[in-house]
Structure formats: C-alpha cells, structure tokens
Give the backbone structure.
Amino acid sequence: MTKKRKRYPDLNQKLERPWCFYCERDFDDLKILISHQKAKHFKCEKCGRRLNTAGGLNVHMTQVHKEQLNQVENAIAGRGGLDIEIFGMEGVPPEIIDQHNQQVTQQHFADERARQQATGNPTRGSGMNGTANKRAKKNETLEEIQERAEKFRIDRANGVLPPPAAEVKLEPTPPAAQPFASPPGSFPPGQFPPGAAPPAQPGSIPGGSGLPQRPGFGAPPPGAFPPNGAPAGADFNASLDDLIADAQKPPTAETPAEKKSKKDKNIKLVFFDDIVSPEEKMALLPRYAEFARV
Amino acid sequence: MSSQFELAQNPTDPISAVKFAPNSSSRLLVSSWDRNVYLYDTLAEPGGKLLQKFEHSAPVLDVCFGRDDNEAFSAGMDWEVRRIDLDSGAQTVLSTHSAGVRNVFYSAPHNLLVSSSWDSTLHLHDLSQPGEFSTVALPAKAFSLTASPTKLVVAMANRSVNIYEMDMLAQAAQAGGHQDVKPWQQRESSMKYMTRAVSCMPNDAGYASSSIEGRVAVEWFDPSEESQSRKYAFKCHRQTVEGQDVVYPVNALAFHPVHGTFASGGGDGVVALWDAVHKRRIRQYQRFPASVQTIDFSTDGKYVAVGVSPGFEDGSDDVPDGAIKVFIRELSDTEAKGKASKK
C-alpha cells in the first residue's frame, strides 16, 4: 500500500469556509461557527447562558444581572464592539470580508510556496506550464553541435574530464544511502562508518537470531534514548519495538502529568485545613481568645 | 419587584449567624464575635430598627429562636448554651460544654434544643424539663448542625457526618445524663475537604453540605441504592484571577422553606440560588462587599438575610478588614422558585 496523497484544499475551498468575525477562526460548517460564537463570544460570564448575538447578551446582562456589557469576550483587537450585530457570517462588514479574503489568499500562496520548498514537489498547476524545474530548451545548429563534439574530442585527448561526470560526483547523496554508497570492506574490521550505529550495521550481527533484520540507517543513535532504554548487542533488534514505544511514550506520558500539575498549581484555596475550622482559628486570635473560657 | 437593603446598625465584629423569627418575617436575630446578640425589626424603619442587644461574656457563635418570637438560644466561646428571654433580656445558662459551642438548633415539634460543640458532644435539652440535659458523644468536633422535621444532621471534623433520628434524641433528652444514642446513619462527606455547612431540605428528603473547597454536595436520607446514586456535588464560589483558580469556602447554606431551592454563600462574597432537583443555578446575586458567613430565609420565604463579614483566611494573622453588614433582600414571588428543566 502506498501512502495516500494528502489533499490540500485549493484557494476557493479556503475562501468558502465560514469564519468568525470576532476571532478570525475558520470552521468547516456554519453551524459550528454559530455554536463557536455562542460559546466563546456570546456566553454570559455570570451564569453561562449562551445567547445568539452580542446584542442579545447585552440585553440579558442588563435585565438579569443589572450589568452593562462593554465589549465582546475573546475578540481580537478592534473587533469587540457591540455596534455590529453578528450572527454566523451575517452582519460582517464587506470591507472586513475583503480584508479576510485577502489574508486567506496570501496565506494560501505562502503555504504553497513553503510546502513546495519543503517537499520539492511542483506547486499546483505548475506541472504543465510552470517553468520552475525545466531547463531552457537549447536550439543548437548543426555547426554548434559539431563544434562541441570537436571540443570534447580535444579535451578527452588532453585528459580534461567531461563536465557531466564531475556533476554526478558533486551531487549530494541522501544521508540514508551513505552506508551503501561506501563500498563494503573499505573499513577495517571492528570499525564502522561514521554516522551508522555499530550494532545496527547489517552483517555485524551473527545470523540465526530468527528476527528480521532492520535497516541499519533507520535506527536512531542509542544516545537518543534514556540510559535504561538502550540495550546493546543482539537484544537491540528485539527491544527496538520497545524502544520506539518508549521514545513515543514520554511526550504522551508527560502531557497528562503536566496538565495535572498545572491544575494543581493553578488552584489556590483561600482556607485550607483538615481538622481546624476557620472559627476555631479565629477563636485563637488574641482579640477573641481573651474572652474565651479556658 | 425585589429589593435589597442593609441594616443601619451593624455589629462591630464578624457576624456568626442571622436567624428569622418563626412567626414574623421582620424579626431578626444576629449573633456576632463582638460578644453580642442583636434583635432587629427589619421593617420598622428604613434600614431596620435595633430593638435590643444582649451582651455575652465571649464571642457568640450561633443563635436561634425558640418556641415563639420571644425566646432565643445562643451558643459561644464561653462554652455555654443560653436561653434568652427577648422581652426581659434575662439570660439562663442551660448547659456548659467543655469547649466552644459552635451551633444551636431548636426543634419545635419535639420541643428539643440541641447544641453541638468543639468538645465533640451534643447536648440535648428537653425544654419541658428545665435544668436537665443529656450528653451524646460524637466521633469528632462538630462544625455544623441542621435538622429536618425528623432527622438531625451533624457535620464534623475528619469529614464525618452523623444523622440522628429526632425521636431517638427526644427520648434520650428525657432520660438525662450521658446517653449513647446510635446515629441512624453514619456517613463520610462526599467531598474531599472539610465540611463547612449543612442544611436540610424542608421536605425531609435529604440535605446539602458544603466544603472549604468551593463545593456543594446534595444527598438524600433514604439509604436505598437508588436514592444514594442520586447524590451529586458541584463546584461553585471560585474565581479565576490571573489564570489561577481561587477557591473560596462555602460558608453558608440555607434552603428556601417554600420552594425547596437553596442558597449558598461563599468566601467570595457571592450568594447563589440553586435548584437541587433540577441541578440548576437559578440566579447569582451581585457580589457582597465581604465574605458571606451566614444566610437565612424567613419562615414565609419572602425575605432572605445575608450576614457579610470578612472571614478567616489561611496565612493571615488576623481577620482581614472589611465590611461587617447584614443585608436583607425581599424576594419576588418567583425569584427563588426552581425552573422546570429546559429542553
């Protein structure tokens, strides 16, 4: 099975997505946008009631809590005003829509460029008429070709290496291919090419372990793991799965622990005691203790 | 239309309890750490009228009305449970604990006065036998006391909660001396932190309790699994300050005598009304100027009194400065009424 190619949405799909006027977040669906606005922007901080619009929340606040709503919660700067009635995508001023569309368009092209740089894949639509990776077509006359052929013959006679061969040598090889690029046997026994983990070097493990060989270059250096997770020798392959599991565990194990400690840290009890009540502590204060019976 | 006002003459030290009279919704008792019990007529004039002040020898931790609007009971750091004749101002000591007395509760149907103390005992006073009382040992210091028509709930240190049957207590009170009354039920608080307050539902079905860690639990008396599985707890009286969750103790709980909803008051100075059955908050009032220490509804459910004063906070050497005031709120007909569950 080959990996399914990731589909990136095109610009039109991105522009069609509903988005929130207050925080510029975009959503798959208008319904989700509306529930987002009710939860994040139109929720009463006093009683948690979710209203449909900022105006509705204002009326609720004045009638129920006798308070004045000054601005919409969680809004980005300049968007918290109550003068505009927003519901989903309705009520968004056209100039703000234009501004948002422009931003989305710019972001879209920036993302595409970044992806193209990272993957080397042609950008969308550049496969047919794009010129990025294409060499200019050479229009040589017969004389020019003959001239080039003549130069080559002279160079070869003089021992000058043809440029194409030099090019091949200079081309960087992907690091993954390194151990194979260097001819086997060119290293003295007991020594390993730099960069390859010694126990993982194919052929260095005596055969008959019964386990399928793993490609040596796929194994991370042992130093990347905590000391307890770095066995050596023939155990290496057997415990590689565990190692990978270990390597993946710390982040997942850390996150809940972190969350928990965060939770603990962020709570401050105004009064904390298991045995002695606030009144008993108050009773010990000198100004009250002097009247207490003993 | 609902309205709110504060009493004009307030105690000078933190307020420990506010209580409405059984037969009048304008007669209010307030006990304070300034060693006084105050009696007000809240409606006599704007800001209420202070009718009388009853001096004690030590800070008063709780007060309650007795058989009628002219009898009151108080408890405090003088270890004594007192009866106060509100007409004459005469005080009689009913019993003496061996530590501060935290709460007093008067049960009209049984003519029984119960006091709970930091000495880990209950004192039962059968008021038809003046001068007599019985002692019931508790497993820990008592922090809060409440009762429904048939059950008495004591919340104690170590998160323990004892539920007694009123009839059993009334019998024990008649017998006098040390009584070994078995609690009808012994429970552990469903919350992780110290219990702060308990209050019974007026319909005798269960009670609400609150903890120092911004939480309120609602449970039912009925020991059947079905009823027990209905119990729940929720967070409240918290505030996010600069990304930190500041958790306040829930100091006060009071059920509305008519609608069966309840109010909670916290160290954050907020009073919220809750519908225990539908698990909904009905409303939350604007923040009071200091911690809410005590809440009481009038017998007809038309008024609510809120005692506001700075509470003891950990890490402080003294009670912080702040407003010491009693607020009276007149409730509109539907203000404390639970809503039918929506949607």
Summary: Chain A touches chain B at residues 46-47, 64-66, 266-283, 285, 287-288, 291-293 (CB under 8 Å). DSSP finds twelve helices and one strand in chain A. The beta strands of chain A are 267-269. Chain A has a mean pLDDT of 70.
